[in-house]
Amino acid sequence: MKSITIKGSERESVGKAATRAARNAGMVPCVLYGGNQPVHFTAEDMAFKGLVYTPNVHTVVIDLGGKTYNAILQDIQFHPVSDKILHIDFYELDAAKEITMEVPVKVVGNSKGVMAGGVLRLNQRKLKVRALPANLPDFIEADITELEMGNKLYITKLPTNNYKLLQPDNTVVAQVRISRAAMKAAQEAAKAAKAPAKGKKK
């Protein structure tokens, strides 16, 4: 999985007044958990742009004055009105311990059903993955090439290279639905087939 670097500064004071002052200065209060003790730090609001405002997921290298930590974003709080970042929790990674993350699904291939007039529906945009940090994928590839109209792609058909997918086996990742136009055409064809042929009057 790709990683981005967040440069920040450790916080000596973690009280409400210090937290408010940090936010007023355009800084985001953060806490890194998972180590021997929590590490409190701040970083500029813009430093999180490539981490928070994107559909992609990343691991994070937290650089606090040359002291670095490998981590993942665990929780984030936004202001209810302005959507400004108020606080972020990170979790420190251990190269020898598996972790769980939600990873985006990437659709590949041209579905036979879609080319025949069906409509593709992506039921799962992210999937929960468990793996060692080094084996975390950037995305889960969902190949829809063989999906005919009305078919479903189950999670059991997805690749699992050095990681585990934690959803049940009956989880539908994507499906090709019959479009309204195709359904109407099928109904009209069925009616035409059932209609009695007009014979000549004797």
**Sequence of strands across the biggest β-sheet:** 1-3-2-6-5-4
Mean pLDDT: 89
Rg value: 25 Å
Helix content: 10-25%
Low-confidence stretches at least 5 residues in length (pLDDT < 50)?
none
Morphology: elongated
Q: Kindly estimate the percentage of residues that lie in beta strands according to DSSP.
A: 35-45%
Number of helices: 4
How are helices and strands ordered from N to C? EHEEHEEEEHEEEEEEH
Work out the number of β strands: 13
Largest sheet: 6 strands, mixed, barrel
Based on secondary structure, the structural category is alpha+beta
> What is the terminal separation in angstroms?
79 Å
Organism: Flavobacterium suzhouense
Subunit structure: Part of the 50S ribosomal subunit; part of the 5S rRNA/L5/L18/L25 subcomplex. Contacts the 5S rRNA. Binds to the 5S rRNA independently of L5 and L18.
Domain Large ribosomal subunit protein bL25 beta: 98-178
Domain Large ribosomal subunit protein bL25 L25: 6-90
Give a description of the structure.
- This protein is α+β, with helices and mostly antiparallel strands and 202 residues long.
- 16% of the residues lie in helices and 41% in strands.
- The chain has helices spanning 16-24, 49-52, 112-115, 180-194; strands at residues 3-10, 27-33, 39-44, 59-64, 67-78, 85-92, 99-108, 119-122, 126-131, 140-143, 152-154, 164-165, 172-177.
- The model has no long low-confidence stretch (mean pLDDT 89).
